[in-house]
Specification:
The protein is mostly helical and about 280 residues long. It folds into two domains: about 110 residues, no CATH class; about 140 residues, no CATH class. It has ten helices and two strands, in the order H-H-H-H-H-H-H-E-E-H-H-H.
Length: about 280
């Protein structure tokens, strides 16, 4: 019961912060999302690099934070787009710094300093394209819809998986996540589409119904892959949770693992279909 209460309170607090970031203004959005990026990168590097190359870890996090900030300024404050290229400077500094690392006995871990940029910093920086229009006006409703669909997938997968999948369904990816089942997978897709349709008819998810359903399908499927990708990292490094910042739930990376893959795919879909 104590653990349930702890999970409930921390879960409500997490949702409240997310709603504040998405439904208030661009300053709160930028602050919350930048801090989230830094925390996720720190969790990943602590898991993969431990205490090795701590100064290089700082440089890697700085590079990721710089990328997010420059794109945030470009989309929200008419910052010259050509200057976003400055985000490469900290990356080059990180590369040069590797030459001066004295202890290279665990130099294989250095690759994780680059992996975290591709895995977390780049996709997280793309969130800015979902909340700013071409004139820099902020509106977090679309991103909120994306998160609602992803969370709906998680709820559906859990409900169908725990009731039917553990008894009757085949495992989805037993070598990485033994508890996930195909029944849970299809249940997650069903719930994702249901959430998208409800949001559409409530006038919140403001695209044609076919686009709403297509996005729900894409986010649901790619979100599962995002979850599995993080599970693979954790299984390799024998870690249960990426962190403990959310009591009873784990780290931020545990909460946003699906979004790191799904949301960029959703944004790409809208751009390609010329509806964003």
């Amino acid at each position: 019961m104590n653990n349930f209460i702890k999970r409930t309170i921390s879960g409500i607090g997490f949702v409240a912060i997310m709603l504040a970031a998405l439904l208030t203004n661009k300053y709160i959005f930028g602050t919350v999302m930048l801090l989230s990026l830094i925390i996720m990168m720190r969790e990943f590097l602590r898991m993969t690099c431990g205490k090795n190359y701590w100064f290089s870890q700082i440089l890697s996090i700085l590079a990721g934070a710089t990328l997010f900030t420059l794109i945030f300024l470009f989309k929200g404050f008419n910052f010259p787009g050509r200057l976003v290229i400055l985000a490469f400077v900290p990356v080059f500094v990180l590369m040069i710094n590797s030459l001066y690392v004295k202890d290279k006995t665990r130099f294989d871990k250095f690759s994780n300093l680059y992996a975290v940029l591709i895995y977390i910093a780049v996709p997280w920086s793309l969130l800015n394209f979902a909340v700013f229009n071409s004139t820099g006006e902020f509106n977090g409703v679309l991103l909120l819809c994306f998160f609602a669909i992803i969370w709906g997938t998680d709820v559906g997968a859990y409900m169908f998986g725990i009731t039917l999948g553990q008894k009757y369904g085949k495992k989805l990816f037993p070598s990485i996540s033994p508890k996930k089942s195909w029944i849970g997978f299809w249940g997650g897709i069903f719930m994702a589409v249901a959430v998208a349709v409800i949001l559409h008819y409530l006038g919140i998810f403001c695209f044609d119904l076919i686009h709403c359903i297509s996005i729900a399908l894409l986010l649901s499927v790619t979100g599962v892959y995002g979850d599995l990708i993080e599970s693979q990292w954790k299984r390799h490094y024998d870690v249960k949770d990426s962190g403990s910042i959310i009591p009873g739930h784990g780290g931020l990376l545990d909460r946003f693992d699906s979004a790191l893959i799904a949301i960029p795919i959703g944004i790409i879909y809208l751009v390609v279909m010329n509806v964003l």
